[in-house]
Amino acid sequence: MTPVVVSLDDVKSDVNTPDIQIYPNPVCSGMPLNVYFSHDTYSPVTIEIRNLSGQLVFTEKVSGSSSLQIGDQLRPGMYMMTAEMTGKRQNFKLIVK
Q1: Helical H runs in the chain?
Q2: pLDDT, mean over the chain
Q3: Bridge-partner residues for 46, per DSSP?
Q4: Cα separation of 76 and 45, whole Å?
Q5: 9 by DSSP, 3-state: which?
Q6: How much is the pLDDT for 95?
Q7: What are the distances in angstroms from CA 37 to CA 11, 23, 96?
Q8: What confidence tens digit (pLDDT) does each residue in 4-43 have?
Q9: How far, in Å, CA of 82 to CA of 92, rounded?
Q10: Any idea what DSSP says for residue 75?
Q11: Lower Cβ count inside 10 Å, N or C end of the chain?
Q12: How high is the pLDDT of residue 96?
């Protein structure tokens, strides 16, 4: 049996990369929250932000990478953000200063 040599170059670089990235996090109240999608096939995407009590405090549908204008809708604190796209859901902790 002949051994097979596999280098790190043979492994896809995006295997451990999330489909969605948000920045900055923490974000200052009134500042835009940037949402970046690593794949353009996930359109439209529903973004929901909930407080720690589970109440929906912000929702928006976006197509492609964009900036969410959360404005003064979110007071300083911790939130849970969910991005839902064609059968996929990704959750984030969001901190607002």
Answers
A1: none
A2: 77
A3: 61, 84
A4: 25
A5: helix
A6: 93
A7: 21, 12, 21
A8: 444 444 434 334 445 778 889 999 888 888 888 776 654 6
A9: 6
A10: -
A11: N
A12: 92
- β-pair partners for 68: 33
- 91 — pLDDT class (breaks 50, 70, 90): very high
Radius of gyration (C-alpha) of the chain in whole angstroms: 17
- How far, CA to CA in Å, does 34 sit from each of 1, 6, 10, 12, 91? 51, 37, 31, 25, 15
Q: Which residues pair with 45 in a beta bridge?
A: 62
Backbone angles phi, psi at 10, to 5 degrees: -80, -15
* Measured distance CA(47)–CA(77) in Å, rounded: 18
Give whole-number Cα distances, 80 to 1, 43, 54, 55, 93, in Å: 51, 21, 8, 10, 5
Beta strand spans in the chain (E): 20-23, 32-37, 45-51, 56-62, 66-69, 77-85, 88-96
Strand, coil or helix: 27: strand
Q: Which two tokens stand for residue 73?
A: 């809708």
